[in-house]
Prior knowledge:
Layout: E1 10-19, E2 22-32, E3 37-41, H1 48-56, E4 63-68, E5 71-72, E6 83-86, H2 98-108, H3 113-126, H4 142-154, E7 160-164, H5 172-189, E8 192-196, H6 200-206, E9 209-214, E10 217-222, H7 224-229, H8 234-241
Parallel strand pairs: 3-8, 3-9, 6-7, 7-8
Antiparallel strand pairs: 1-2, 1-4, 4-5, 9-10
Helix pairs in contact: 2-3, 2-4, 3-4
The structure holds adenosine-5'-diphosphate and magnesium ion.
Magnesium ion is lined by residues 48-49.
Amino acid sequence: MKAKASEPALRLRDIVKTFGKVEVLRGIDLEVGRGEFVVFVGPSGCGKSTLLRIIAGLDDQTSGTIEIGGRRVDGVEPARRGIAMVFQSYALYPHLTVGGNMGLALRQEGMRKAEIDGRVSKAAGLLQLAHLLERRPAELSGGQRQRVAIGRAIVRDPELFLFDEPLSNLDAALRVNTRIEIARLHRELGASMIYVTHDQIEAMTLADRIVVLNGGIVEQVGRPIDLYNKPANLFVAGFIGSPK
Length: 244
Ligand code: ADP
Ligand code: MG
């Protein structure tokens, strides 16, 4: 079901998550606008992946509500939330070709072959993978594999893309290239994206808005320039102001 155009891509209200006695997310409120590129940053263990998994429906929140495109998705299975997630470990199926990997989820949903082929070929064009569609993952470089993983998300035409540290397994040069590629895709697709990283440079260069998380709460939300110039507190100042 497609969302209403007037509604934000994502609305989180008071998301809390506890594992046993540990409160990992302590009341997260956030709206992500249509077409917006929002980056979650924060130290390791602050709850970034947990929040992304909850938005994706891979894990349930303890309390709070989630709307995607104005539609409540609490209890809705991941495949029906209108999202597509790209992980740091891209887990391609070794026995399938690039094209087979990209179209798999659509085949499982019962989409017609002609429609799948059209979507795969369009995504492959966007990602410069058109000449590699018949290859197997083992015959690709790390960067090419990560592009296939992104292609797998694009073919689903999601309301919202979720990226969890997608570049952290790539070497430095490739990280920069892939980052530029993701920025270009965001422009060309006009899609809403949430991107998790602990890398300040990625956050500053990609984000329309940055959400700084720390210990399960939002420390500050704002445009990169505003966080840089007017950090709300010492934590934000230290995090945004001192790239590694
Ligand atoms: P980040 O992605 O920001 O590094 P995570 O969201 O992965 O952080 O983890 C946040 C906290 O929740 C960590 O302390 C982690 O140990 C804990 N945590 C994550 N998943 C689980 C789980 N399934 N069971 C128990 N604790 C978890
Ligand atoms: Mg994480």
